Automatic annotation (TrEMBL):
<keyword id="KW-0067">ATP-binding</keyword>
<dbReference type="InterPro" id="IPR003660">
    <property type="entry name" value="HAMP_dom"/>
</dbReference>
<dbReference type="Pfam" id="PF02518">
    <property type="entry name" value="HATPase_c"/>
</dbReference>
<dbReference type="GO" id="GO:0005524">
    <property type="term" value="F:ATP binding"/>
</dbReference>
<keyword id="KW-0808">Transferase</keyword>
<keyword id="KW-0418">Kinase</keyword>
<dbReference type="InterPro" id="IPR003594">
    <property type="entry name" value="HATPase_dom"/>
</dbReference>
<keyword id="KW-0472">Membrane</keyword>
<keyword id="KW-0812">Transmembrane</keyword>
<dbReference type="InterPro" id="IPR036890">
    <property type="entry name" value="HATPase_C_sf"/>
</dbReference>
<dbReference type="Pfam" id="PF00672">
    <property type="entry name" value="HAMP"/>
</dbReference>
<dbReference type="InterPro" id="IPR004358">
    <property type="entry name" value="Sig_transdc_His_kin-like_C"/>
</dbReference>
<keyword id="KW-0902">Two-component regulatory system</keyword>
<keyword id="KW-0547">Nucleotide-binding</keyword>
<feature type="domain" description="Histidine kinase">
    <location>
        <begin position="264"/>
        <end position="474"/>
    </location>
</feature>
<dbReference type="Pfam" id="PF00512">
    <property type="entry name" value="HisKA"/>
</dbReference>
<dbReference type="InterPro" id="IPR003661">
    <property type="entry name" value="HisK_dim/P_dom"/>
</dbReference>
Length: 476
């Protein structure tokens, strides 16, 4: 199983703050170490070189010197060592001597020997076996002069001084800096948390406000504090919220006007349509006695008037749904018997509709609205599908399921998402239709009013199928 690690903004801000603090501490410690080490070592080095040069210059020598004389001089120079005890070595031709029991030293490098013979003195820091040393080579110049220049005598003294104490001091400073870094980072955590809190508070406010606006509270605003980028973001959010609230209010007002217009028009048309339907019924009865052209015109007027009456009734019904004025008049019914009555009243019993309606399934529904649901689905299947149309009824103990399927080519995939839209036409070229274009939309609203669902699909074997799911016990 793959786990996705999620690091919050607060954690990232705190980590970034601590990272900056850690970089600052490490950089400061490194620079401090470098400056302290240089200062400590250079101080010891300058003191030792200067003092050794002075002591060698003050030492008198009778040349040529013997090995014993060289040893005595080495012991004397070693006793004057600053800032630490020296070990002094002397080289004079083939003679060597030292203040220790070793006549030569492995710490002295060939580079130092060459430099000491060629100049007025040299020094070098050397690490031997992990230990630091300061080595100094100082030639003696005496008696012989050529013009204004002194001539080296060939006698060179070397001083070897361990720098263990200085290195220890430097390491102590490094340890102190390292030990101080942990408390410093711990202290840095406090301002990091405070900074993260101050930065995230506007973000949390923005998230809360966005959630409230998503829930429909368009009057939500954010309190603006300060004048930074987050304050600008809050200002922008508030301005956008004001514009959105204004636009939604305008849309709602326009929608309300449109609904009111449709409702008013439907009511105004209903009265004259009632009279027109009564007249067309009389004309239909006398159509057989009229000449052929007049009879055709009478039947056309009667048919179109009936369509207009259906459209007006559907508009009034959809207006009631839009106004939240639709109500349920619930009653416990035998669902199979109710469906049979719907089919019988509309004369869909001549084999064009096949039923699979087991008896004994009882549900609490609004009989009138359930009749509309069945009639609209079956009528839609007969108009736009192919016969026979099959009506099936099932129940799982909690919900009843009704399927209305036709034997036609099915519904085009592009049409399926819009099948319950008002006045939606799958064929844009089709301007006239037997229905009002509101039948499926009214079906959807009636099913929702019962707390159920309805959806359309295509069967694998061909044909469209509409499935209605309703609770057996409708909410009051």
């Amino acid at each position: 199983m793959r786990l996705n690690a999620r690091i919050g903004l607060r954690t990232r801000l705190v980590l970034a703050f601590l990272l900056v603090a850690a970089i600052s501490v490490v950089t400061t410690a490194a620079l401090t170490y470098r400056a302290a080490r240089t200062a400590v070592l250079e101080q010891a080095q300058d003191t030792a070189v200067s003092h050794f040069r002075d002591q060698v210059a003050l030492t008198g020598h009778t040349l040529p010197a013997t090995q014993e004389e060289l040893r005595e001089t080495c012991v004397f120079l070693a006793g004057t060592g600053k800032p630490h005890t020296w070990t002094v070595f002397a080289e004079y031709g083939t003679l060597t001597a030292s203040s220790s029991d070793r006549p030569t030293s492995t710490v002295l490098t060939p580079e130092l020997r060459r430099s000491a013979h060629a100049t007025h003195g040299s020094f070098q820091r050397v690490v031997k076996d992990g230990k630091p040393y300061l080595t100094i080579g100082m030639p003696t110049v005496t008696v012989f002069t050529v013009g204004a220049n002194t001539v080296p005598t060939g006698l060179v003294f070397y001083a070897v001084m361990p720098l263990t104490a200085e290195e220890g001091n430097v390491q102590a400073m490094v340890t102190a800096a390292r030990d101080g870094a942990v408390p410093a980072l711990a202290l840095a955590l406090v301002p990091a948390l405070l900074a993260a809190r101050s930065v995230l508070r506007p973000v949390r406010d923005l998230r809360r406000a966005a959630r409230e606006m998503g829930a429909g509270r368009l009057d939500t605003r954010i309190e603006v504090k300060g004048s930074d980028e987050l304050a600008d973001l809050a200002w922008t959010f508030n301005e956008s919220a004001v514009a959105l609230e204004r636009s939604v209010a305008e849309l709602r007002a326009a929608e309300a006007r449109a609904r009111r217009f449709a409702s008013d028009v439907s009511h105004e048309l209903r009265t004259p349509l009632t009279g027109m339907l009564a007249v067309t019924e009389v004309l239909d009865e006398d159509a057989e006695q009229l000449d052929r052209d007049t009879a055709a015109a009478v039947r056309l007027i009667s048919t179109e008037t009936g369509k207009l009456a259906v459209l007006v009734e559907d508009l009034m019904e959809i207006s009631r749904f839009d106004a939240r004025a639709a109500e349920l008049n619930l009653d416990e019914v035998d669902v199979a018997e109710t469906i049979r009555k719907t089919l019988h009243h509309r004369h869909w019993t001549d084999g064009q509709v096949v039923t699979d309606l087991p008896d004994g399934i009882r549900a609490t529904v609004d009989p009138r609205r359930f009749d509309i649901v069945v009639a609209n689905l079956v009528g839609n299947a007969l108009r736009h599908g192919a016969r026979p149309v099959t009506v099936r009824l099932r129940s799982d103990g909690r919900r009843l399921l009704m399927e209305v399927a036709d034997s036609g080519p099915g519904i085009h995939p592009d049409v399926l998402p819009h099948i319950f839209d008002r006045f939606y036409k799958a064929d844009a070229a089709r301007t006239r239709s037997v229905g009002s274009g509101l039948g499926l939309a009214i079906t959807l609203e009636n099913v929702r009013l019962h707390g159920g669902t309805v959806h359309a699909a295509n069967r694998p074997a061909g044909g469209a199928v509409f499935t209605v799911e309703l609770p057996l016990e409708a909410a009051p």
